[in-house]
Amino acid sequence: KSVAFSLDVPLIAVDHIEAHAYSVNIENELTLPYIALVVSGGHTSLYKVNSYKSFELIGNTRDDAAGEAFDKGAKLLGLDYPGGIQIDKLSRNGNKKKYDFPRPFLKTDSFDFSFSGLKTSLLHFLKKNEISGDQMLSDVCASYQEAIAETLIEKTLRASEEFGISTVAFAGGVAANSRIRGLGMEKFDENNIDLFIPHIKYCTDNAAMIGKLAYKYFENNEFSDLDVDVYSTKRNSYTRGKGFKEAK
User: Fold this and answer.
1) What is the pTM of this model?
2) What pLDDT digit, counting tens, does each position of 232-246 carry?
3) Are 74 and 83 spatial neighbours (Cβ–Cβ below 8 Å)?
4) Which of 121-135, 172-186, 199-213, 218-232 bottoms out in mean pLDDT, i.e. has the lowest?
5) Is 246 part of any domain?
6) φ, ψ of residue 166 in degrees (nearest 5)
7) Measured between alpha carbons, how far is 173 from 32 in angstroms, rounded to an integer?
8) What is the rounded (10 degree) CA torsion for 26, 178, 66, 36?
9) Is 148 inside a domain boundary?
10) Structural domain boundaries, residue 107
């Protein structure tokens, strides 16, 4: 704001999560509307993206985000932070069907997510079973990762079918996970749904996604007031208030 004021140039406020949901357009201009799964350490949400300023929330996490499930699970397994990367790496040598971890909320019609029970399930497993060797560790990682991946993809697939939308995007840091990307491409291809996933460098927090969405506002001469405020943990009603809405 200080730079905009001192240079007398327009200010454009960009919502961080909306920028993630729109980041896939950096490399591909998607046909609207599309379903966006934004999945990160702090967020696991489904949006129906109607335009660059209309993001309709249709599903959200009720407790832990998928990224938290990866990191907390990795901590239980004694792996280094960031846990998601470590689990992804070890899973490549593991049997994803070796152990049966729960798929939270898959038996409900809700598009919401819940991963705290999955983490608890891993905790109980480790209390009963000692990790004996690298292969067992890889098998546990692969099985745990598969539960997360299947939950994310099944919910997103249901949303696509429910809204009759055949274009889907994955975004956010967890979208860099190799199994989520691979299983997603497999399942959506089977259902004739176009899946778009940003390059890994655009999945984690980056300036390009902010610039991409900001430029859409710039093209349409839509700018923010200098008294706009910042909210780090909740959505607000500044310039994006008219565009953001929750599905009934």
Assistant:
1) 0.87
2) 554 433 333 333 333
3) yes
4) 218-232
5) no
6) -105, 15
7) 23
8) 30
9) yes
10) 2-236
